[in-house]
Amino acid sequence: MLPYKNLIIIKDKSQIPVYKQIAVQFIGLIQEGKLPPGALLPSTRSLAFDLQLHRKTITAAYEVLVSEDWIDNLPRKGYIVSKDLPLVRPKTFRQNRSNSFSGKGVPNFQKLNPVLPHHFKENKGQIIIDDGFPDISLLQAGVISKQFQKSLDYFTYRASLRKPVTEHYNLQTSLCNYLKQTRGFDIETENVFVTRGAQMAIYIAASLIIRPGDKVIVSDPSYFIANAVFEKLGAQLIPVPVDEEGMCTDMIEEILKKNDIRMMYVIPHHHHPTTVTMSVERRKHLLHLINQYDIAVIEDDYDYDFQFKYDPYLPLASDDHGGKIIYIGSLTKVLGTPFRLGYMISTTEFLEEANKMRRMIDIRGDVIIEEAAANLINNGDLTRHIQRSNKIYAQRCDFLSKLLFKELNDSITFTKPSGGMAIWVKFNPEYSLEKIVNKAEKSGLLFYGSVYAKGEKPLNAFRFGFASLPEDELSTAVEILKNSIN
Amino acid sequence: MLPYKNLIIIKDKSQIPVYKQIAVQFIGLIQEGKLPPGALLPSTRSLAFDLQLHRKTITAAYEVLVSEDWIDNLPRKGYIVSKDLPLVRPKTFRQNRSNSFSGKGVPNFQKLNPVLPHHFKENKGQIIIDDGFPDISLLQAGVISKQFQKSLDYFTYRASLRKPVTEHYNLQTSLCNYLKQTRGFDIETENVFVTRGAQMAIYIAASLIIRPGDKVIVSDPSYFIANAVFEKLGAQLIPVPVDEEGMCTDMIEEILKKNDIRMMYVIPHHHHPTTVTMSVERRKHLLHLINQYDIAVIEDDYDYDFQFKYDPYLPLASDDHGGKIIYIGSLTKVLGTPFRLGYMISTTEFLEEANKMRRMIDIRGDVIIEEAAANLINNGDLTRHIQRSNKIYAQRCDFLSKLLFKELNDSITFTKPSGGMAIWVKFNPEYSLEKIVNKAEKSGLLFYGSVYAKGEKPLNAFRFGFASLPEDELSTAVEILKNSIN
Lengths: 486, 486
Fold this sequence. Notes:
The structure is a homodimer. Chain A is an alpha/beta fold. In chain A, 44% of the residues lie in helices and 15% in strands. In chain A, the strands form four sheets. The first copy, chain A, has an eight-stranded mixed sheet with strand order 4-11-10-9-8-5-6-7, with helices on both faces. Chain A has a four-stranded antiparallel sheet with strand order 12-13-16-15, covered by helices on one side. In chain A, 47% of the residues are buried. At the A-B interface, helix 1, helix 5, helix 6, helix 7 and helix 8 of A face helix 1, helix 5, helix 6, helix 7 and helix 8 of B.
């Protein structure tokens, strides 16, 4: 309901009778679009009360509007703005548009580089190749809704409401134990910081560390949204190539000798996008450099939990780094999009600032989601889910690898990963991935955040996320890809 | 489970028998804290498999560890790290701490000003005065959980998963209609941008507009977390006093004449913290200035929905501003902390950049929460909830006003607000609010984000959030306040 009391002003001294004054001002509201077609007008009784007038006066005004086809009087519904106002609509709508949220618009704001490829509306029957999402159909809906019910309990969230923003959540404690067991960290609850997703952790850490003009070492290629964040914060990116052993640490050493480096962003485990895992030698070398040159490091370990053969390396952060490494992980990769949850492990001093930064960005998290996630960790559902998922993802990875080898081996190169949710597929130079993608999309195969075919030196490669696709969809996808080559 | 395959290395040529090599390396893991007291060791079978050894060898190794009190063998549970390792624990823990997340820590990161007052742990029986939170006990838990069940439905969120980040949510459409009806905006779904909360909307809008050194007009006093954001982005704040008619627009005009102003942050409706609502004359003047000087404006309208008497003014943004105003609102203020949801209304051009910025911060929102909120809007539960809340908040506001007048009238000044969730209580200069707060907290009355008693020119005032407190708690609160004065 609009505040008619302030919108409809009655001039007592006017020549125009009151009911006409009202009618005219309603026409104004309709023409301005403040009362769009189909909008319900207030009842004669309530408007009479608001305007302190006799109800007969309002009825008279409405009758004028009805007779002039501005409004209709629907039985058992009341007066609504007429759905077709042919004469006025086009004019007034356009005119009014320019009055509100178009026109010249917000003066002189920053344009950012796109951080995701072009958008598209999904139609039925299409297959989307993502860059490595979990298959949330593996997460038994029953299991989750039970946890949601729990955290929805009125007392739980009334309590949560009263809890100050910086109070520890259960999730913080649950994560702490989970990470001790799986990552071999020696940490306290105070070293755990819960974020919306790994992305927010990256953003917060970077904005506390990076100042305009700072030099930041990133891998080449690297996770493009992280790069976008660093650049938005004014960083100068110094790319270091990735080979089959991970980032080239010798080159990093050369760079550190010659430059004043502010921060390093590394993905030693299942590097994004290439899925390469850094070798032991490189890890030792990197740790040595981190300590020798005393630089801040973000270790992005987004899918440590997904191992097909049981042999991950512990994160860099579990080794000796004197608190210089900020370790970032994701629960979204485990539980799926409905849980936008990630975490940052660092010193209490750093997390205190991270806490302030987070409050500027969104005060606090979703109590219900975080409680549900904590319960899933505590009762072991999370671990069971990961084990179940790993079995299935391993099968899908195997299935896709065989398929790619069988169908596309002459046109692509790829290495079957030891875990994770995606295969890094590189097309041979004679094929243009950009063309292939465009052609494939016409046949209903869409790529989401996974294609590296643009930029100065296009990689002609994409991340083939297999985790979220059942085998039949994987087959269709590869078939469409094959047909899109020529 | 730790990746023992890589942690436990067997030297074939070693003099030491294999079972002892294993035992020694487990002791290492325990001393480093990678295996904390109580941690479960892998079963002899699974470890034998991982290390490709005979199971008897593992058993022998475990027997050594048991005999040396490193681990215990619990019936039906297996081998766990002994809970008391008096000789080693203190030393190894401290030593290991300094190896992981303490030590010197992240080099040279930015220290931010605190954006919330000192934290506190809540104990039973305490009363917290917030700066204006809703009482979520008014939101029928049944109503919500029904909506959560709906959005939890597997198909719903599988679909949501497949939906690209920038795809429209139902919530966007629902909000668009809701805002058209309540704010008189002439907008399309494309003009609506959903965020985590009003806070994130403020952060995103500001970071697209403000560049280091830019001059930003804010009210004095103003919402302190918004100020913190602008300063973090490098803005120079230009404060404009607030009187009983809102921000002094004459002073704004003077400032605009003399300075190159980048942005203006205004709260015309229930100003935060003072709860003053800007007069019609000032609104007209302000709109005139905005258009004349062509500056970007953030209109923060966090509690428009809470009106005790039915006579709000429409937002500035509903009037003619050519898209220069970015309108920000909150659903958290309506639905309570569990729903961290806000929105930004602006031109499609601006929201396109906002979308990129948001993806850098946290990619996307919580599907489940957003779906639930959309349903609450569509089926009318939201409006019913607002109407119900307004009745109760009006009573509590009335109750508190009478109480404050009766009990504290000689020591404070305040104006009963026409809506919202808080009363702005100003203590007379002869009383130190800081002292009062400290004394009150000893008696179990805590203040959360509501006290303006610090800084260069302390206001000696606080926001008395009445919405979340039932009458008995309001009485106790005022009683404690009274007793804390002397």
